[in-house]
Backbone:
């Protein structure tokens, strides 16, 4: 009986260790990798670097930092913004990180990390145009937005879908403004500044359209990965590493 009991105990230990190993190896989509879904057309949070091949930006550097701490290789998957949450829900990516705003609606489908940045929705207009204040948005014919962003959601709710034209990325929306297809563009403040600096004749309205918090998103089934991600993120927020990255890309006024 003692021998039988010993064999059973050994078997249980092997199964237990195997289960632990399985949990660890299945924590990410691919063992040894942290795959992030992003939309690399949103400077300074994520964009294609000058070499035309690699990626840069706030979200990329934060992801690199966390992946390194977790002992994982970072893989960036660039896609349309409207697809990034679906990518984590369907198991194609581990994390969605793309200046992603925390909303109650999104919380129904994904889990969010700790907040790492505060965002502002701003309005880009032509300097010589008729839109001079937020109140004027109620009277314009068409407002340009980036598809599936909170700017898109807010404007559609405030002004109705008939007055909104959604584009795949912010650059397309801005080009539509320059071409006169829309009278303004509602988009996050940081990329809005980049677009205004790069296009003569554009400016930002003084007032913010909305304020919001940014976080990374995870599948509802990725609780262990979210926990480990947050442990590193919270530590890097506390020691100033995240702020250092933010300051690198977003200069103080």
Residues:
């Amino acid at each position: 009986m003692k021998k039988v009991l010993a064999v059973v105990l050994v078997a249980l230990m092997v199964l237990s260790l195997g289960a632990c190993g399985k949990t660890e190896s299945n924590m990410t989509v691919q063992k040894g990798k942290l795959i992030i879904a992003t939309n690399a057309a949103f400077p300074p949070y994520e964009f294609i670097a000058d070499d035309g091949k690699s990626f840069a930006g706030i979200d990329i550097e934060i992801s690199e930092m966390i992946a390194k701490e977790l002992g994982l290789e970072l893989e960036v998957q660039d896609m349309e913004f409207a697809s990034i949450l679906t990518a984590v829900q369907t198991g194609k990516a581990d994390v969605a990180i793309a200046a992603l705003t925390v909303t109650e609606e999104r919380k129904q489908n994904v889990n969010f990390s700790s907040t790492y940045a505060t965002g502002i929705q701003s309005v880009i207009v032509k300097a010589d145009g008729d839109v001079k204040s937020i109140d004027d948005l109620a009277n314009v014919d068409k407002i340009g937005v980036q598809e599936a962003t909170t700017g898109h959601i807010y404007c559609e709710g405030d002004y109705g879908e008939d007055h909104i034209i959604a584009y795949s990325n912010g650059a397309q929306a801005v080009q539509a403004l320059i071409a006169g297809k829309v009278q303004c563009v509602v988009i996050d403040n940081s990329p809005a500044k980049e677009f205004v600096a790069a296009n003569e004749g554009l400016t930002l309205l003084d007032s913010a359209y909305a304020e919001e918090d940014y976080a990374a998103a995870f599948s509802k089934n990725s609780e262990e990965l979210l926990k480990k991600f947050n442990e590193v993120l919270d530590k890097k927020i506390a020691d100033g590493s995240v702020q250092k990255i933010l300051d690198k890309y977003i200069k103080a006024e």
In short: The first strand starts at residue 33 and ends at 38.
